[in-house]
Amino acid sequence: MISNLGNSVAAWYLVELEVPYGLCLLGEEDYPKPETWKFDTGNMGGNWLTSPSSLDGFTVTFMSNGQIGVYPGHSFRLGTLWFIPYADPDQYSEHVVPFKIYSDRADPVRGKLKVRVEDVL
Asked: I need a labelling partner for 94 at 20 to 30 A (CA). Which of 22, 38, 69, 114 fits?
């Protein structure tokens, strides 16, 4: 979900998530397998991109390209990233997923999501 706390429509923005490798199953060339996520908005290659990250993981990037606006005081679901941890008890831990949001109307917003893996069924 992305929320617009400003006072104008956000049409040009970019969201980056730095996802650690330990949080999902990888396919070819260390990219996450397609079943790792579901896009609620946009499409792969147009709005969504993945690339290797310098943080021992990969970067998931969403770009609005001026096509998908978020209105003031509203939230909007971009997609769902399912974390699929390896079935290895040594991988159970708390992971940090840094994120950045850029827009044409404000300074970048940086933060961290914490993901705690407690059990794998």
From this structure: 38
Joined together, the tokens standing for residue 30 give 């260390």
d(Cα 62, Cα 52) in Å, to the nearest integer?
15
Q: Give the helix, strand, coil percentages of the chain, each rounded to 5.
A: 10, 45, 45
Contact 20, 55 (CB under 8 A): yes
Judge whether 23 lies within some domain: yes
- What is the domain count for the chain? 1
Q: Are 102 and 108 in contact (CB under 8 A)?
A: yes
46: domain CATH number?
A: 2.60.40
> What does the CA dihedral 71, 72, 77, 81 come to, rounded to 10 degrees?
130
Query: What predicted TM-score, i.e. pTM, was given to this entire model?
Result: 0.74
Residue 106 lies in a domain: yes
- Please state, in angstroms and rounded to a whole number, the distance separating the CA atoms of residues 49 and 28: 15
Which mean pLDDT values do the consecutive 10-residue runs of the chain (121 residues) have? 80 87 65 63 76 77 87 80 58 77 88 73 53
